[in-house]
Amino acid sequence: MVVQALAFYLFASILVLSAFFVITARNPVHSVLFLILSFFNAAGLFVLLGAEFIALTLVIVYVGAVAVLFLFVVMMLDISFADLRKGAMQYVPMGLVIGAIILTELVMLFGAWQFAPGAGQNLAVPVVELVDVTNTEALGQVLYTNYVLAFQVAGLILFIAMIGAIVLTHRRRPGIRRQVVSKQQAVRGEDVIEIRKVTTGTGA
Amino acid sequence: MLELWTTYGIWTAMTLMYIGIIVGCVLTAVAYLTYAERKVMSAMQRRQGPMTVGPFGLLQPIADGIKLFSKETIIPSQANKIVFLLAPMLLFALALMAWAVIPFDKGWVLANINVGILYLVAISSMMVYGVIMAGWASNSQYAFLGALRSAAQMVSYEVSMGLIIVCVVLVTGSLNLQDIVEVHRPIWVQIMLLPMLVVFLISILAETNRAPFDLPEGESEITGGYMVEYSAMAFALFFLGEYSAMIMMSAMTTILFLGGWLPPFGIEALAFVPGIIWFALKTAGVLFFFIWSRATLPRFRYDQLMRLGWKIFLPLTLGWVVLVSGMLITFDALP
Amino acid sequence: MIGFNLIPLLPEIFLALTGMGLLIVGLNITKEGRGKEAAEIVSWTSCASYALAFVVLLGISWQPQIVLNGMFKLDQFAGFVKLLILLGMMTSLALSVRFIKDEGFARIEYPILITFAGIGMMIMVSASNLLTLYMGLELQSLSLYVLASFNRNSLRSSEAGIKYFLLGALSSGLLLFGISLIYGFTGSIDYGAIQATLMVLQDIPFGVTFGLVFMLAGLAFKVSAVPFHMWTPDVYQGAPTSVTAFFALVPKLAAMALLTRLLFEPFSALSEQWGQIIYFISVASMMVGAFAAIGQENIKRLMAYSSIGNMGYALIGLAVGTQMGVSALLIYLLIYMVMTAGTFAIIMSMRRDGRAYENISDLSGMSQTNPVLAYCLAILMFSMSGIPPLAGFFGKLFIFEAAVAGEFYVLAVLGVLSSVVAAYYYLRIVKVMFFDEAGDAFEGGLPFARRLILCLSIVFVLGFILKPGVFIASTQGAVAALFAG
Question: What is d(CA C384, CA A112) in angstroms, rounded to the nearest whole number?
Fold first, then answer.
């Protein structure tokens, strides 16, 4: 138990710290790197909860794919945060006021938090008995049955995102020669090479 | 205190010892992989290769190591120092971390986790950060170009690698690497997986930035890519990380497709040879493929590389996942 | 597994499959170098597929049933609203075909995105689980963000898209935060379970109300109700007119239906709490819609404020919280949809020398240059402002009637007052057309689809008084299902 607790505090404190650095770092690339660190620590927390599948999926998807592209864009754009922040200072008082209001509300909310009497019963409805299946199997058992609609709609959403990205950015530039392998393969020697008899001394 | 020692201490000490053994073996393997590479390539090109240091040049890797140790590490003045130094360390650490879940023989594994294969994918997908960070922190155009190329390339080929792994996992019904090796695969399943082995071999070339997909380094175009500003130990770490990733990918191929520590083709008569020997031999075979393709194939052009990844491998592997799962259901062969 | 029955989802599945199939077909036609033609073919085929989905929807049973582990519910209410959604999709796509061709961004993705937005809306209407709700909402919103910036060569269109996207993402965040609070409190995201859990409570704890407020804020954004309306004018103005027409016709209907089901099914026990919120939103929307529209010069912007105001009236029906109120809400939305379709058919026809015009002053003297269009627009504007025998009058009448019957006198009076103010700017358009000096004529010769839709809209507006019973009966039938359980 001691080890678990230590690991929890380690992951949690690094997570919070790196999340803090995400918003305070002066260099946007550093921000993204801290973001990645916080993803990683969140995955660590999942491992502690025994949800190893989710933890590794988090690493593969967020750290391995999403954040790479994010980092890619941030590096390419070369944004200067200092310039962006110039105008931002005037909104700070307003932001602080709103933040303070929401914070008070949340404190009130969680201070007086109580669960509905039926909540425990709702939560207790067993999804899958986690006795003799790994959590990967358990996830698979509900994902494609109980939540098949949500799963399919999520697929459609990603599909739309793809169509949207192509519609908004893809341009067919004129004058670019594309490689068409089948065409290259179809070329015959006689189509492109002509053998001529050259008579010596005539120059042609 | 004694109780604490018996519960955690012994375990920790043992684990540390195992880690030490694995790291030692991997590093030696890396050293002699470079030697093997030079020897194999020279044999293919009708020349001698390293000859002078030690018998048959066997001490050459050690001499190289000493050379790199004793050189001066140069940090460019305009570089982002922390990230610049962090990048090679990250790459190297990740390349070693992956070995934690590799089973060398039945039960010979440091961490036998349920989702071992996902762990390997996660580690290999994080390797790209070492490259990107190096390219960005060097503050040099060549390095940056190399980093961008590498990021795009690794992300692209990871997709089809993931789908191939899904095929294998469908067949074996487990994400645990030991189970993947041990589950019996009928002959027709093995034949079904054969095309995926070919695609996987090509993909790991791209994933490890090796020839003919070594565009991130591309010494003739971008003079070494993301490593252009690195020297001495920092460079050595990149080098070690990259070669250890190569060995790791070969081990992964062995586990996924070649039956790990089991004797080849299920020949019982060969079972007397220890499993680790088979494992090492199979891995060495895949490594030979790495070297062989480096010596024979010219470098791809960038658009050809992307075309291969997205337009050929992705549809092919995706279709194969559907095919394999369909076949498994039709013949009621789901594990 | 429980309730694996895909029959109630047939229209959605059909649309999704045709959408994907048409994308492939369209891409192949485009590849042959016939891009313009491809867009036209795919558009009309999509229209036909909406009509087919309409038929399929009519063909399946609307007896209330919950399928797929409680994720999806088809009942008379959902069926009726889905019919309206399909009609709206058909109308707006038919209106767009010529427009996108004239404006030079005819691409096959346009109808495909409309199809998927439609699927999202149909799922929203049928949601009976907070997860389905969110998924449907995101599918719809994502398609709409892309559509808003579809004319990517226009700076305004891109700006509209990015504005819509950023604010939309914020509102989704609020919605999700609300959902998580609700889940945390009740332990479920299923409508039925939430309702059952909340039903037995003596007094409503703070946490649930808090979650509900966040959810309502997120949804108010989607129906563009004040104080979450800021995006509407900019997006309406910036997006291509055909897209604006789509925005005005369908998504708000779907969001309103979603809101209705949410409030009357899982949160029926909290009617006191949400009643006040809806009351406030409704009054604020009516007022902003009426007063802010007065100074507008751009007709698309004007339509945006008009829609904000109209959502305010529609929300009265919800605030009242009776069966009568909700059926008045449905009929109001139906009438508003028909009037908007006609109005946008005319706005799209404001073209001169191959360019689209959008200012109210461009309409000046239209009665002399394009008399038919001018009279049609005048009829529609009279109807919008609620002049008696026209359809728009009845829409408002039913709403106010429901308010009075539910003893919400103040709300009814405020509604009447704001509609008097709103009448000013509708009638100003009529004044500009009939009494201002004539400018150049707009291009004559409306395309067939536009002419047909305009005709139908005018006939509906004029003829509603003859047979109002048909519509009232069907909306009442639809709403009865909502109050049965």
Answer: 48
